[in-house]
Amino acid sequence: MLVKSFPSSELKLDNNDITNYRAGFTLIELLMVILIIAIVVSGILITKALLRSSEINSIIVQKDIFNNAVTAFRDKYNCLPADCKNGDDLGFIQDSNNYTKGDGIVDDDEKLFFWDLLSKNKFIGEIWNSIYLPKIATNSVGNRGYWDLWSPKDPKITASGDGTFTHLTGNNYYWLHGEVEMFSFPYKSAGIFIPVDAYDIDIKIDDGIPLTGDVQAAGDSYGYKLGNADYPGNGPWKPDSAIRDISYDGCLIGYKNLNTIEEYNITNEKRIGGNLCSLLIKSGF
Length: 285
Known about the structure:
By secondary structure, the protein is α+β, with helices and mostly antiparallel strands. It has helices at 8-11, 15-23, 27-77, 110-120, 127-131, 155-158, 195-205; strands at residues 146-150, 173-182, 185-190, 215-218, 252-254, 261-264, 278-282. Strands 1, 2, 3, 4 and 7 form a five-stranded antiparallel β-sheet that branches. A two-stranded antiparallel ribbon has the order 5-6.
């Protein structure tokens, strides 16, 4: 059998040919790279969505934990935490300036002792872990919001006369808000939820409508006011007159009738002053 021989010069590849061959990618390899990137990005987005859902659900679960804790406290002591007529006999530290103990309303300075009594009597855990909200509830300067209490029967609210929540049916509400210091004074009603998160909490507990039902929204005092700087019920429930007759970026969307604010502004995702929501959630006591 004859074997044809080739000159060595014919078998030698040019260096440029080798470089070009090694540096190139096939279409399949490019598609694999794109697929891997897509999987990584999708994983990040899914993780963020799951974390967001988990934190929203944790708020709802925490509400039920607090309700159960207060029910257990009331069953044992026949009063609400910090609202006991015989608080001194029970060894509780309560607001000495409030002489309407036992009225079923946790208001004024009673709110200062409410969480402390639940914690010290082992109905909830450590206060720090109990009353602070997850990271999804963060105000415009990066501080986490917390659980507070509010009552529509608080005289500091009902005496204002310039607008209140009109569909509240309970004595006590959880108030989820933050604080922003302005002019060396803490504005307590700072919003902590972007509107879509506030809406999702509302719809899971209630009707998804910000000014009716068991969950109601207040705006951010650090900007447009849907509530007074310290008390969410002081209103007025309308945009600033300088932006009359138009909708505006904030917690809620307003219409030409300035007293009608019906929807969460879910397209607003900017976590800046004036754009965020605080929430009132009807308690179980």
